[in-house]
Amino acid sequence: MTPPFPAVVLDLDGTLTVPGTTRPAQGVVGLVEGLHARGVPLAVATSASTRVARRVLDELGLLRCVDSVAGRGPDGVDAGKTAVVGEALLGLGITAAAPGTPMLGDGPADIAAALAHDLLAIGVAWGGTRPAALREAGARVVLEHPDELWALGAS
Ligand SMILES: [Mg+2]
């Protein structure tokens, strides 16, 4: 079975979790587990510290599904989302993303970072940013529910 996507990059807060909490957003655990089960390499790119991000993913039961976690380092310097996404991709061994590699995020900075790396920029509506604002930032699609991602992949 061919994986439906070459890889998927995911923002953490507001995308995998309910904004400002460590609770999973509805449907995301099933999506991440499903992508992992189908052999899709997964990376998380976050403005949170890498250490905190790994702990949150562990609490969600998803750390085992994720191959690369990139965030702020111990020095506390926030290099910006575009740099973090680049690091997340490198963690998957990717220096240039294959066409059709999605990145999911709930904020305009996620969309900008996705576009900077030639990723398929996908907004998520459950993080609180208006879908129109995500589209204005360049999101190709705005998902209302995580399961809608499947329709964008190879079957
Ligand atoms: Mg976010």
What are its keywords?
Rossmann fold; binds magnesium ion; alpha/beta; 6 strands
Biggest pleated sheet: 6 strands, parallel
CATH second-level architecture? 3-Layer(aba) Sandwich
In the CATH scheme, what's the topology name?
A: Rossmann fold
- Residue ranges: pLDDT <50 for 5 or more in a row? none
Number of domains: 1
What is the CATH superfamily label? HAD superfamily/HAD-like
- Helical segment count: 5
Bound molecules: magnesium ion
- Look at the structure and give the mean pLDDT: 95
Helix amount: 25-40%
Termini, distance in Å?
Answer: 9 Å
Let me know the number of strands: 6
Major sheet strand order: 3-2-1-4-5-6
How would you classify the helix and strand content by structural class?
alpha/beta
Strand-and-helix sequence, N→C? EHEHEHEHEHE
Please explain how this structure is put together:
Pfam families: Hydrolase. The chain is an alpha/beta fold and 155 residues long. The protein has one domain (8-152): HAD superfamily/HAD-like (Rossmann fold, 3-Layer(aba) Sandwich), CATH 3.40.50.1000. 30% of the residues lie in helices and 18% in strands. It has helices at 28-37, 50-59, 81-91, 108-116, 131-136; strands at residues 8-10, 42-49, 68-72, 102-105, 120-124, 141-143. It has a 6-stranded parallel beta sheet with strand order 3-2-1-4-5-6, with helices on both faces. Strand 4, helix 4 and strand 5 (120-124) form a beta-alpha-beta unit. Helix 3 crosses helix 4 (108-116). It is globular and about 40 Å long. The protein starts with 7 loop residues before the first strand and ends in a 12-residue tail after the last strand. It binds magnesium ion (MG). Magnesium ion is lined by residues 11, 13-15, 105-107, 127. Magnesium ion binds at residues 11, 13-15, 105-107, 127.
